[in-house]
Write a structure and sequence with these properties.
single chain, 274 residues, alpha+beta, 60s Ribosomal Protein L30, Chain: A, 8 helices, 5 strands, 41% helix
């Protein structure tokens, strides 16, 4: 009889079935949780301006976040100060001055006002001299302490700073070649030098102006001691170019508009000459 064929049966090992993608979802959740943890840890150790900037972004992504968020990708320790935060800066500076016992007595000689040009900080002189000795361009101890405090605080923001020197209408007694013009400019530069040595950025000061007695604070009393003052203006950040707005921009535009209107009126009223 013929030999029956030999049949060899090979068994292949099975995979055990498809387990699905549940593990991918769990892994994604884990990675997301770790990322959130790292962000929270970073925020806890970041500076206050950065925290406020991020908070403002999530509250209003098209407003505050647009103005503040661009600086976060840089050093991470400065936030741009838009117009709506000038009042807050004013309050913080006032609190800083009040917290220093020795400077508390100078509170009546420091006035802060939010203006179209920015936050204007006025250091007003008294009869005997508060920040400068009479007729002297050098800062006394009180002036040095206050300007140092302001420099530390203003050095935390990128806004440009404008410094002005003013005098009263009393002519400067002394050198014939030295007048209130030189004195006001020298006092402004003395304030600039100290502030830049005490925390203000080297490129933060945009201008130093000396006005002598041409912009009296009390025009009714040109000899009033408060006319002798140093003005520090924290300028706004432009919404578009990220640069400080030019000083007196609003007033300049208003004047140009006024002149244009007057020119148009004169043109309509004056007959053409041929």
């Amino acid at each position: 009889m013929p030999t029956p064929p030999i049949i060899i049966i090979k068994k292949k090992g099975g995979h055990g079935g498809h387990h699905g993608g549940a593990w991918k979802v769990a892994y994604a959740d884990f990675v997301t949780a770790m990322m959130a943890l790292f962000i929270v840890l970073w925020l806890m150790n970041s500076s206050k301006p950065v925290q406020e900037a991020i908070s403002g972004y999530f509250k209003d992504p098209s407003g505050t976040g647009k103005l503040m968020g661009s600086s976060l990708a840089g050093t991470g320790d400065k936030a741009q100060l838009p117009k709506q935060d000038m009042a807050k800066l004013k309050e913080e500076l006032e609190k800083s001055i009040e917290s220093v016992i020795d400077l508390g007595k100078l509170k009546k000689n420091v006035e802060m006002t939010v203006t179209p040009e920015g936050l204007r900080i006025e250091l007003l002189e008294s009869e005997g001299g508060t920040f400068f000795d009479s007729g002297n361009a050098g800062l006394n101890q009180s002036g040095q302490e206050l300007l140092t405090l302001l420099a530390v605080e203003l050095g935390k923001i990128p806004n440009h700073i404008l410094i002005e020197g003013h005098t009263d209408a009393k002519p400067f007694a002394g050198k014939s070649s030295y007048s209130n013009w030189e004195l006001s400019a020298d006092r402004g530069n003395a304030a600039r030098r100290l502030m830049q040595q005490s925390g203000l950025g080297s490129d933060q000061v945009s201008q130093v102006r000396g006005f002598a007695d041409q912009q009296l604070r009390d025009a009714k009393d040109p000899l009033d001691p408060s006319n002798r003052r140093i003005s520090i203006i924290v300028q706004y950040i432009s919404n578009n170019a990220g640069q400080a707005e030019s000083p007196g921009k609003d007033a300049k535009e208003l004047e140009e508009g006024k002149l244009s209107a007057e020119g148009a009126k004169a043109k309509t009223e004056t007959p053409d000459k041929k």
